[in-house]
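Quick one - first record:
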Amino acid sequence: MSTTISIEDVPFNRFHKILTVRSVGGLFVDGYVLSIIGVALATLSPQLGLDAFWQGLIAASALVGIFVGGFIGGALTDKLGRRLLYFVGPVMFVAFSVAQFWVQSGEQLFALRFMIGIAVGIEYPVATAFLVEFLPKKQRGPCLASLNVMWFAGAAAAFIVAESLLHVGGENGWRWTLASTAVIGALLFIIRLGTPESPRWLMSKGRHSEAEAVIRRVYGPRFSLANLPENRDGRKLKIRDLLHAGYGKRMAFVSIFWTCSVTPVFAVYAFAPRVLDALHLSGEWASYGSIAITLLFVVGCVLAMRRVNTLGRRKLLIRSFLWSALALLLLGWMNNGPSLLILALFGAYAVCIGGAQVLQFVYPNEIFPTEIRAGAVGFSASLSRIGAAAGTWLIPLSLQNLGIASTMYIAAGITLTGLVVSWLMAPETKDLNLDDAASLSTDPQAYARYRDTIQSERPRSAINDRI
């Protein structure tokens, strides 16, 4: 085999499949954690004496934790490596999920779910950076998209497990329900054992011999550093470069589209039974409707995952925002319609938003280079959770004070904002290798500013080197 063949062009092998399973497990836990609280709240609220304010605050607590965890996880993953941070999230999932079983107040539950949210925030940058830095080019988009499929699969599992445990667990059913996340966290820790460090990260730290050892282990003895395409312009990027030197525009795009895609979804997810009840679907209609809609979210993500390479990132994102916004507008307009119509519109939203959901991890991992990739994912995830947390906290108050129609119109407005931003700023990266996708040379104006910055820094760097 020629030494000039890029590792991005090798066949999808057993290692890639195992790594994908290891990484998507974190998003499964994420979907499980953030969804299960919505089902448990109805039972635990009377026992803990929670009013609407505290219900919304506890539902949003994990999202606030993700805000903090994203910043921490992104920075530490770029600084300390992918492999070390790969095990932090699972350990935290187990510890703080088990502790939920003994909570006695809303304040305690808020604190524990905040810590679980930090674990989720750490998962985003480390799991996605691992995947994108090992995967072949053709599988990069679909595998990163599969992360969101597993998020909704975890959410669906949460509804199913919660309904079962609440029925058989008696007055402590909600405690068993919240503590059940520990089981998944423990399994995640076990399956991640044996994962090597990312050779791209090792290269960015000057650890060339270790990087080559990993490449030979994963791809075979005929591969070496010569098979690893990497940015060779001589400049070492730092986390501050997310906000200037051409990457600020990309950071703004990712943060805004991610926020607009998750805010309505999280808000609806946390209070799915209450939203459906406000739309006149109660009892079994609400319970089974929540499960059905969740499964349709999975269907939407699977369909988007299959089209991320054929349709392209940009078209998929724009169409996703367009059709999902229309579904939300119709839900607001026809909120008094027949039950089957309401479920159909909710299902249409669930399927159509799949495109925006799966691209949340594709875009930031493709358009930022190795040195700041995890930081970009963590930063974007954190900023997006501001809107998600606010939406989750405010939705019970919105339903109570504004009504279901206005609530759906607000969700539609947020989605339409995502559409406009995507139309103006979304790039196309489907046919680019990872180095080219992350290079500013695809944006002539940004690249010119970037090269000017390099030129201005070189004399000072040369002086520092001589000193």
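second record:
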Amino acid sequence: MGEVRKLQKKLRQIENLEIKISLSPEERFKISRKAELRSRLAELQLQLSGPQQTLGIVGDGKKEKMKRQVEDAPEALPSQTPPASKILKGEEESKAQATPAPAAKQRGRGGETEIGRQRERTEPADVSHHCRESDNERQLRQEEAEFTSLKSSWEKAKFRLRLLEGHNDIVTCVVAIDNLVVSGSRDTTVKVWHVPTATEHKNLGGHTGGVTCLSAPPPEYCKRLARSLSVSDKERFILSGSADCYVKIWALNIGQCVKSIYTFNAVTALCFVPEEDGYIITGSDGGKVQAWSWHTFQNCQSINAHQEAVTSIQSQGPLVFSGSAEGGVSVWENRCSDRDPLRLLHHWSGQVTGCGGEGGRLTLSPRGDRVFLAHGRAWLKILHWRTGTMSRLTNHSSITGVTDCVHQTGGLLIGSCYDLANGESSLNLFSLPQCRYLTSLTWPDAPRILCFAAWTTGSGDHRWVTGGRDLIVWEQLPNSGKQK
């Protein structure tokens, strides 16, 4: 068992090295041993008692759906809770917070029924209480019926997958704009793709280091910049950050860089905050968070916010959320000022979030008072950022699974999933806001997914783009037949 854990740790370290923005010769040699270590791990797992050592893998070793794996496992939760979720040690209370399962609702409803009976003895004329109780029951039944229908729909979902070929290194970031997909890569380029034809539209070369992050300002802010540059007000712009310490602003239609901002630090994360005149927020490899005016492109603020590299920055209204490699999460309020616009509201360390470590990265996605965190483990974390309380959402049926990115779109929470032991990759879908498991989407030899973007078509169908070793567009097809 000790050797298994050592091999798992080495594989995790190798996978973290593979997504670094630059590699030394020594690191490349370590990566070259991945197949050897994975083979040895598989041998040891076969020698050990499979189901006890590799959670979620059935005894004959055959690969099955995440749902089936967990249902066959002895510690699986009742069927009312997400099939993707297993009770881990010490996790019961956090699971109750993360996914308010129908079973819990049923217990609550039973309690209300008992109270109703007591009142019936003392207050037989209280008709309004019974009406409310009946309304609650109807609402619960309606919610359960809607979830059942949604789950059935996604279990039958089919997607057409199209490979976008052009990058010669891993794709680190993607965004979607209208019918265009923009991707950034460790190969230093930003590429623009025309989705309907799956062809490369523009190759934006200008960075001298790997591209780490992208952000798309809203159309109204693009119009302001277009007017100042005397170009068409239909021009769309994209922001790219790189290890070369630059943020570049690209005009997509003309395919040119219209502005470069030197940040003095390798840029590892960025986002656009559409408040007042607009702000660009960047994060660096040294943990610094900086604010830049969209009006003047001057630096408004520099803060030593984190101990290690800032790996994710997202905005939600006037709030900005930053996450770092050591697992810390900071919540900022944008005060819409020309000087020091960001005010720290909360900071939760890696000891609180339980994230970070082993050279990994943390990605986040805020939703109201919650922030979903992906940090290279088999589960998603949920930080209730006002109170600092944490809960878990299991995202993988194997202890060797890792989660690289998390995204919200159209009432869905989507977590990527990659198994260190066998190299299998998938996307796990959960319903929002309850975070109940819907289904897992995968195909043979699916590559590791490091970044994700999504939009919907005019007919309401989903289109996604995933990046990593490959850049792939997912186009949802009419709901019929089995999942493709």
